[in-house]
Amino acid sequence: MSSYENILVETRGRVAIITLNRPKALNALNDLTMREVVAATAELDANPEIGCFVLTGSEKAFAAGADIKEMSEKSATQMYTLDWFAGWDQFTSRRTPVIAAVNGYALGGGCELAMMCDFILAGDKAKFGQPEINLGIIPGMGGSQRLTRAVGKAKAMEMCLTGRMIDAEEAERSGLVARIVPAAELLDEAISTAELIASKSKVAATMVKEVVNAAYETNLQQGVLYERRVFHSAFASEDQKEGMAAFVEKREPNFQHR
């Protein structure tokens, strides 16, 4: 595994833990952090021995936003020609499941990064928001799109227009967060959940991620048909044979991830 400046990467069995590590900047997402997260997850995604990622920050902040100092003096032409933030699209293309473990602030780009993950586990003190309007700008890493899909138009519009933060309980009620965990137990619970996912067939987990994400892009009829075709293709895997044999024989499956 490569060495990085703004993130920490470790593996525990089939789980990879990626920690945003700019504590003095509350893990503000600068260009280097983006490039490091993209590079680390690309390397891990290609590793057949890794079955799930956990992306986390510190107790105080998952990520308090994009790095404003880095952007503030740029012109529209520079932002456009550099296609600022486009690199995050590579992160969202990862096929391995990704859990966001959010403690503290997940604001602006931090909230957007959490939403790029497959689901969010939140510490009970977590705060989410899209406060870009307070800077005279709008979300730029997918916030207006993913937040609307997660919580609906009314709440997304209110959050983006007012910059209001929501706490973990409101985030869970609204559908942004999968579960709330006591802050001190968050990382352990996220790793435990990742270990459970990683113990399943990686082939099937990749398929699950693909078909659930397809629900964003298709109508119901097309989505159901797509799911059925991917379901059919699962029968080409060794893991399907092992999983069903184990069920019939009343034993635990021994998946080989192929």
TrEMBL record:
It catalyses: a 4-saturated-(3S)-3-hydroxyacyl-CoA = a (3E)-enoyl-CoA + H2O; a (3S)-3-hydroxyacyl-CoA = a (2E)-enoyl-CoA + H2O. Keywords: Fatty acid metabolism, Lipid metabolism, Lyase. GO terms for molecular function: enoyl-CoA hydratase activity. It comes from the Bacteria. Its EC number is 4.2.1.17. CDD domains: crotonase-like (cd06558). Transmembrane segments: none annotated. GO terms for biological process: fatty acid beta-oxidation. InterPro entries: ClpP/crotonase-like_dom_sf, Enoyl-CoA_hyd/isom_CS, Enoyl-CoA_hydra/iso, Enoyl-CoA_hydra_C. NCBIfam families: PRK05862.1. Belongs to the enoyl-CoA hydratase/isomerase family. Could possibly oxidize fatty acids using specific components. This is Probable enoyl-CoA hydratase echA8. It comes from Luteococcus japonicus.
